[in-house]
Amino acid sequence: MHPFARFIQILGKGRQGMRGLSRTEAYEAMRMIACYDVEPEQLGAFLMLMRIKEESAEEVAGFTQALRESFHVAESAFQPAIDWAAYAGKKRQLPWFLLAALILAGRGYPVLMHGLRRDDERLYVPEALEALEIETARSLVDAQEQLRLRGFAYLPISKFSPLTAELIETRNLFGLRPPLHTVARMLNPLSAPLSVMGVFHPNFAPIHQQAALLLEQPAALICKGDGGELERIPDRSVELFGVSDGAAWTTSWERLMRPGQLVKPERLNLYHFIQVWEGETEDSYGEQAVIGTLALLIRALGLELTPLAAHQLAESWWVQRQQHPLQVLERPAATCACAQADSPPAATPLSG
User: Fold this and answer.
1) Which residue from 36, 47, 141, 198 has the least number of CB within 10 angstroms?
2) Cα–Cα–Cα angle for 215, 45, 5, nearest 5°?
3) How far apart are CA 141 and CA 154, in angstroms?
4) Angstrom distance (rounded) from CA 143 to CA 140
5) Residue (of 104, 164, 165, 159) closest to 135 by Cα position
6) Which helix H or strand E contains 152, and what residues bound it?
7) Could you give the C-alpha distances from 82 to 110, 123, 152, in angstroms and in order?
8) Which candidate, 179, 250, 168, places its Cα nearest to that of 209?
9) Which element (helix H / strand E) includes 252?
10) Are 184 and 85 in contact (CB under 8 A)?
11) Distance CA 25, CA 211 (A)
12) Where are the alpha helices (DSSP H) in the chain?
């Protein structure tokens, strides 16, 4: 019997006999997949059985650990403050979360953003970056250099984990989302102390949170955002799932705008996106989405813990955004100071 068959047996033994994989089993299975020690038929069966069952935190942690070991990262690599997963794309609104990331970078909190781009009706980060005349990174080494020079880098997943990108693309073959969509968000290739991600289905938020704990991620923030990205929806309340100093926390924040004020644009206009960023026009929804998203990151960084204080600081950063453009960072990122609810640490940015 093929060695990989035992993992398929575990998942597919019928309603009474099947079970999920332990973290160790998930790690071993993904190690075999990463070494291409699996037949195509086995891989397809494995992915679809996982899809039917849905991945657990233990499985996500095991898969993530195995894939991380396939990266080639020097020990002296530049470490960003924030790892930002951006895989969903935007359909209803512009990618306002990207402006929040750029503001954080300008404030001295380097952001590595990673994701993908599909040929569908959604708008993805690379298109918005192109409009902003910011190039995407071509490799992990290139991303590290961009982080060192300006504090922000966007890296397509195909450039640092081709296997993960290949497995994600099986969606086109099966018509179903494989578990690698969940795992990709957890990869954090440069070991940033804070890992943030959005989800579309709220039930995946605690799975990410528990997986982050298993992986000993110092800090994490997960919430349901617009279209599945980590972007605050201003006219809805939001439930936050976080990790700080090895402990999980959850909290709920109230909406920023009254329901009914949202007007969905007829099309996603990147020229308007640039105008808002440069202060040439206003967009009440977009500005609240940026400020609200910034406030979430401020909470996750431990700079402010209450919604009011976090939003006040975020609003001041938005107003002053042109005074803190992307800049050269003189020294590596300090470890993110991430707070417990009762004792906020004094987090110090690198510059600005």
Assistant:
1) 36
2) 80
3) 12
4) 5
5) 159
6) strand 152-156
7) 6, 22, 10
8) 250
9) strand 247-253
10) yes
11) 15
12) 5-12, 23-34, 40-53, 57-68, 96-106, 125-131, 140-150, 162-168, 171-174, 180-186, 205-214, 270-277, 284-301, 307-319
Antiparallel, parallel or unpaired: β 194-199 and 82-86: parallel
What are the φ/ψ torsions at residue 149 (nearest 5 degrees)? Answer: -80, -35
CA distance readout (Å), 159 to 44, 141, 142, 174, 196: 23, 10, 10, 24, 20
Rounded to an integer, what distance in angstroms lies between the CA atom of residue 347 and that of residue 326?
Answer: 20
Placement of tokens 């569908």 in the chain: 120
Cα 1 from Cα 125, distance rounded (Å)? 44
Single-letter residue type at 41: E
In the three-class reduction of DSSP (H, G, I as helix; E, B as strand; rest coil), residue 85 is classed as strand
pLDDT in tens for each of the 352 residues of the chain?
899 999 999 999 877 778 999 999 999 999 999 999 999 999 999 999 999 999 999 999 999 999 999 888 877 678 999 999 999 999 999 999 999 999 999 999 999 999 999 888 899 999 999 999 999 999 999 999 999 999 999 999 999 999 999 999 998 888 888 889 899 999 999 999 999 999 999 999 999 999 999 999 999 999 999 999 999 999 999 999 999 998 999 999 999 988 876 677 778 999 999 999 999 999 999 999 999 999 999 999 999 999 999 999 999 999 999 888 876 444 334 444 443 333 333 333 333 3
AA letter at 5: A
Environment class of 35 (CB within 10 Å of its CB; exposed 0-12, middle 13-18, buried 19+): exposed
Radius of gyration over every alpha carbon of the chain, rounded to an integer in angstroms: 20
Domains, the chain, with CATH or none: 5-53 (no CATH), 82-323 (3.40.1030.10)
- Tokens encoding 109: 């909190």
Exposed, middle or buried: residue 133 (CB in 10 Å: 0-12, 13-18, 19+)? Answer: exposed
